[in-house]
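Give me the 3D structure for Peroxide stress protein YaaA.
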Amino acid sequence: MLVLLPPSETKQPGGEGPPLDLAALTAPELTPVRAQLVDALVALSADVPAARAALGLSAKQDDEIARNAALRTSPTLPAIERYTGVLYDALDVRSLTRAQRARAATRLAVGSALFGVVRAGDPVPAYRLSAGSALPGLPTLRSLWKPALTDVLTATGELVVDLRSGAYAELAPVPDAVTVQVLSERPDGTRAVVSHFNKAHKGRLARLLATTTAEPDSVVRLRALLRRNGLHVEHPGGSELVLVVPADAVTR
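Predicted structure for Peroxide stress protein YaaA (252 residues):
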């Protein structure tokens, strides 16, 4: 099972790993696109106003541009520790046991505008590039990533659980991947789409999938696994699951 997570705009700074080695990342066949984007970001960083415009940053975020300028020389962290925010707080990899961490390393991957996809243990530097960014002189990120990245993600032979947000899923759609919608249910039975706290619920779901000893190989077996673990999960058809949470649990 491969669980695809969205990245985060925020990144943990620093690190103790060696500088970026693109060839050492998962799926080395993606190296040409990765190198093209790294070179473009480093070059763009020399023109701060242009970098702000391309990346949607304000003057208060110039430190993000400085990070991009140092992409090839700055220290790295495992990808699963580099990304931060609501989903990653809920995933809470630092609290996993050694055995759980090893299992998570084989199952978790992060979609990335810069690297396409990285496995949990891949060493990456802090950077700033979003799925919707447009880099001067280059095609759209979707045009760059879709041909190669979709093949990489579909060639694993594993059940893919795609928890990426819409913009990142569009970079490289995975046919037949299991997707999860989070709905809140009020006492009167009415339901609503969960927006911000959707990330927290998906983080908890990712933690469960990363650490379970089960190996579901279909959407039906995945639903059964989640239900055995106390989650209210519905399967309306196809490869979509619906995670239903009580309205009073939406903010927890």
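Residues 2-249 form one domain. Let me know if you want a second pass.
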